[in-house]
Each structure stands twice: as structure tokens, then as C-alpha cells.
Design brief:
Distance between the termini: 40 Å
Bound molecules: phenylalanine
Radius of gyration: 21 Å
Structural class: mainly alpha
Length: about 450
């Protein structure tokens, strides 16, 4: 058992909220959300997404916080302590998913560094053809892609090796406010472009005839991925939160910040994409191919390009830190490794595991018709995360509800409806919804 008295902790509630929001806000919000929304019809997707975040995502996040706070450790150890050995596989599944996600996340994180540098020296593409050719040439160059991936992993490692309070919390407290500010500036720029209205309509006027099973699964996978839930990340962060602090209001604030950033990222991207006559359903290339072209047409575009890609670097670093933290926490808490050793070994191993993803887009390394990177993303986000989320909801709702009731109470009073509503969602609504969406929408 780990030494619970000497565990590192977040220094303040706001530090905890910013670090958790830092985990949640990432490539998922700024890179993935707009293109998934674009591919799935825009506003109707956004509406369903928001519904799922607050009605299913937030209760699952609370379930993780309860297990982490009571278990005081990594996902495997915490589950063993609060629920018994039978539940350890749920934690192990989360750690495996974290390894998979971090492996490809660092690849795309590396792209963001490369694009920030290109924006600074002014060598981004100027139209979709040239930006597409540059992106294509970049991902086909294994040395460049792997080099940037290594740099990104190194940055992640350097922060996480310093610990919770001195590393992750400090970084997020400084950079998350910078991220919010940059994002608002960019959104104001985008919505005031002449011709922005069409993009706003695509993004904000729902057409519910577009709703179908695979779209709802995409929204659910996106909600889970974006909130970093279902795989024990929030559990681990919750385990570093002082017992005197409440958990219900932070969970709401984290969900709010996360959907706010995703929503604003859409406001940055769609009006600009439409204003200059580009395609909103451009897929994963939307950020790296379409946007450089958009920026080059925009007055003051080069400054906004730097701001945008820098923002993406910060957002992805604060997320990859949380992934490295969960995996390392397992080795620190369960295997008694030092933090330095655990973070170094995990970062190196995950880096190597990411190499197939890194070279998959350029070299056509495919897994049953999907690029290796897309396949990893699909398995983690659309399969493991929803199933893990279902596991946490069922466990907390049926077995740990007394603990949850105690954890929910806070000095300022939580509205009395919260606990019963949470319980009904965890016991019945979330498992059925996740199961149904999963069965009807799962298509490779
Ligand atoms: N939530 C992060 C994002 O939106 C990704 C992530 C997933 C981080 C799972 C940690 C765990 O980019």
C-alpha cells in the first residue's frame, strides 16, 4: 500500500480546477471538436454534445473524484482500496488507455510545436493546396515528425517530473489563463470577419434530421475524450485534492470551462472557414491544412496564426501531463518507484509506442483501413473511454453511494437534488445511454 501521508497535493482549489481543466482542455477541444462537429453536421452535433457533457460526463467525473479521494492513489490502488480486488481491472484498463492516448497525443502535440515555429518564421502555407502539400510533406518525413514528437514528450516529462504542486499545478495556473485570453481574442477576430455569418449559422443552427446513431456515438466519444473521463485521469487528480475541498462545484466548473473552450474554438474556426470559402468537413486536416490558408487571407493573420498554434501547444501540454501523471502514479503508488524514475520510464516507453502512429500518416501504416493513429484514437476514445465511464458510473452509483453522499456534502451546501439526480444517472441513465449509443453507433 502506498504511503498516504506523504502524497503530493494540489496547493489550492483553483490550482486543482485549472489543472483538471488543463487536462480536459486540449487537442480534443481545439483540434478534434471542430472537425468532428464539422463532419457530423455542425449545430445538431454541438447540441447533443453539450447535453452529454452535463448529463453523463459530469456525473461520471464526480464518480471518479469520489473513488480517487477515498482511494488516495492511482486508479488500480484506489479501486482496490474502495471497492475490492475485483475492480482493479477497471483501473488497469484506464492506465492502458492512457498509454494508448498519450502515445498518439504526443505525435499531434509535436505537430503543434512545428506549426508554431513555422508561424513564427512565416512559412505556413498560403492556400489549401500549398498548406496541404506542406502538411503532407511534413508527415511523410519521419525524422521531423518523430523529432517534434520527442520534443513534445520531453516538455511533458519535464513538468510532470517536478510533481503535482510544483510542476503540473504551477504550469497550469500560469498558462491556462493565457490560453483563455488568446482564445477570446481569436474568436473576436473570427466572428467580426466579413462573411462570418454563414459559418455561424452552420455552427449554431441545428438541423436535427442529421441525428443518427453514429453521430451520437461520435458526440459521446468526443465528450468523454474531451473531459478526460472514463480512464482514471480525473480519479488520480481527485486523489491529490485536499479532503477539505468540495468536489461538486469544481466538477461543474471543469465541465463548464471545457465545453466553453470547445464552443469558442468552433467560433474561432467556422466563421473564418466559411468567410474564406473553405470546407468545414475537412477532417483532421482542418486545423493543419485549412487554418493556415485561412490565416493567410486574414488581415493580421500571421500574428493570429502564431497565437493560435501557441495556444494549441499549451492546451496539448496540459493534457498530456495528466496522461503521463496517471500512468506514472501507478508505478509510484503501486510499485514504489520514485517519481523521477516512473516519469522517465513511462515517457520513454510511450514515446516509442507512438512511433507507429507518428509514421502512419505519411507511410500508410494502416490497421484495417484506418491509419494507425486514427485506429489508436478510435479504440481509446470510442471503445475504452465509454466502457470505462460506464464501469465507474455503475460502481459509484450501486456500491459507493454512501461514500459519494459524504464526499458531495460541502460547507456551502450542495443543492439537495444533486445527490439523488447523480445516483439515478449513475445507476441507470448513464449505463443504459452509453450501452445503447455504443451498440447502435459502433462502426469502425
Ligand atoms: N481531454 C484531452 C483533450 O481534450 C485529452 C485527454 C483524454 C486527456 C484523456 C487526458 C485523458 O484533448
Amino acid at each position: 500500500m502506498s504511503d498516504v501521508t506523504n502524497r503530493d497535493q494540489f496547493g489550492s482549489r483553483i490550482g486543482f480546477i485549472l489543472a483538471s481543466a488543463g487536462s480536459a482542455v486540449g487537442l480534443g477541444n481545439i483540434w478534434r471538436f471542430p472537425f468532428v462537429a464539422g463532419e457530423n453536421g455542425g449545430a445538431a452535433f454541438v447540441f447533443i454534445y453539450l447535453l452529454l457533457v452535463f448529463c453523463i460526463g459530469m456525473p461520471v467525473m464526480l464518480a471518479e473524484f469520489v473513488v480517487g479521494r477515498r482511494g488516495q492513489g492511482d486508479p488500480v490502488g484506489s479501486l482496490r482500496r474502495v471497492a475490492g480486488k475485483a475492480f482493479m481491472p477497471l483501473g488497469a484498463m484506464g492506465i492502458i488507455a492512457s498509454i494508448i492516448i498519450l502515445s498518439f497525443y504526443a505525435v499531434v502535440g509535436g505537430w503543434t510545436i512545428k506549426y508554431t515555429l513555422d508561424a513564427v518564421i512565416g512559412s505556413l502555407g498560403t492556400d489549401v493546396a500549398s498548406a496541404g502539400a506542406m502538411f503532407g510533406a511534413f508527415v511523410k518525413n519521419p525524422f521531423a515528425v518523430i523529432g517534434y514528437q520527442a520534443l513534445f514528450m520531453l516538455g511533458t516529462y519535464m513538468v510532470v517530473a517536478r510533481g503535482i504542486g510544483n510542476g503540473i499545478e504551477k504550469f497550469c495556473t500560469i498558462f491556462m489563463p493565457v490560453l483563455f485570453l488568446l482564445l477570446i481574442v481569436l474568436a473576436v477576430r473570427s466572428v467580426t470577419l466579413p462573411g462570418a455569418a454563414e459559418g455561424l449559422a452552420f455552427y449554431l443552427k441545428p438541423d436535427f434530421s442529421k441525428v443518427n446513431g453514429s453521430m451520437v456515438l461520435a458526440a459521446l466519444g468526443q465528450a468523454f475524450f474531451s473531459l478526460s473521463i472514463g480512464i482514471g485521469v480525473m480519479l488520480t487528480y481527485g486523489s491529490y485534492l485536499n479532503k477539505a475541498e468540495p468536489i461538486v462545484s469544481p466538477a461543474f466548473q471543469i465541465c463548464f470551462l471545457d465545453s466553453f473552450v470547445a464552443f469558442i474554438a468552433g467560433l474561432v474556426i467556422f466563421p473564418a472557414v466559411f468567410a474564406f470559402g473553405f470546407e468545414p468537413g475537412a477532417g483532421p486536416g482542418l486545423t493543419f491544412v485549412t487554418l493556415p490558408a485561412v490565416f493567410s487571407k486574414m488581415p493580421g493573420g500571421s500574428i493570429f496564426a502564431i497565437a493560435f498554434f501557441f495556444l494549441l501547444v499549451i492546451a496539448s501540454l496540459t493534457s498530456s501531463m495528466s496522461l503521463l501523471e496517471v500512468i506514472s502514479a501507478y508505478f509510484v503508488d503501486e510499485r514504489r518507484w520514485s517519481r523521477k524514475k516512473a516519469t522517465l520510464v513511462v515517457a520513454s516507453f510511450t514515446f516509442l509506442l507512438g512511433v507507429p502512429s507518428a509514421i502512419s500518416l505519411g507511410g500508410g501504416l494502416n490497421l484495417f483501413g484506418k491509419s494507425f493513429l486514427d485506429a489508436m484514437d478510435f479504440i481509446a476514445s470510442n471503445v475504452i473511454m465509454p466502457l470505462g465511464g460506464m464501469g465507474f458510473a455503475l460502481l459509484a452509483g450501486w456500491l459507493l453511494h454512501t461514500m459519494a453522499r459524504e464526499e458531495f456534502s460541502d460547507a456551502h451546501g450542495v443543492p439537495s437534488i444533486i445527490y439523488p439526480a447523480w445516483r439515478v444517472i449513475c445507476c441507470v441513465v448513464a449505463p443504459i445511454a452509453i450501452g445503447w449509443i455504443f451498440i447502435s453507433g459502433l462502426k469502425w
